[in-house]
């Protein structure tokens, strides 16, 4: 997949992140290359996914 982005002026105010997943990206600005990959060598039936834990609030 080829994806073309034309960046214009950017202005970022406050950012509030409630939580992140095990595979996530948070990006502000430019990136020349982002490479994504995934690999599982464990059978799906042995994978245990627990509840998500939110990040601590910083006020």
Structure explained in plain terms:
- It contains no helices and no strands.
- The termini are far apart.
- The chain has 59 residues and is largely without helices or strands.
- Helices cover 0% and strands 0% of the residues.
Short description:
It has no helix or strand. Helix content is 0%, strand content 0%. This is Spore gernimation protein GerPD.
In terms of per-residue confidence, which ranges show pLDDT below 50 for 5 or more consecutive residues? Answer: none
Number of helices: 0
- Coarse shape: flat
Amino-to-carboxy terminus distance: 41 Å
Rg over alpha carbons: 17 Å
In round numbers, the mean pLDDT is 75
Indicate the percent of residues in helices. under 10%
- Let me know the largest β-sheet: none
SS content category: little secondary structure
Which range does the strand content fall in?
under 5%
Protein name: Spore gernimation protein GerPD
Organism: Paenibacillus psychroresistens
Main attributes of the structure:
0% strand; little secondary structure; 59 residues
Q: Layout of helices and strands, plus pairs?
A:
Blueprint: no helix or strand
């Amino acid at each position: 997949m080829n994806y073309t982005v034309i960046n214009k002026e950017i202005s970022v105010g406050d950012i509030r992140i409630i939580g992140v997943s095990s595979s996530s990206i948070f990006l502000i600005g430019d990136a020349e290359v982002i490479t994504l990959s995934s690999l599982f060598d464990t059978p799906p039936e042995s994978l245990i996914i627990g509840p998500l834990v939110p990040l601590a609030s910083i006020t």
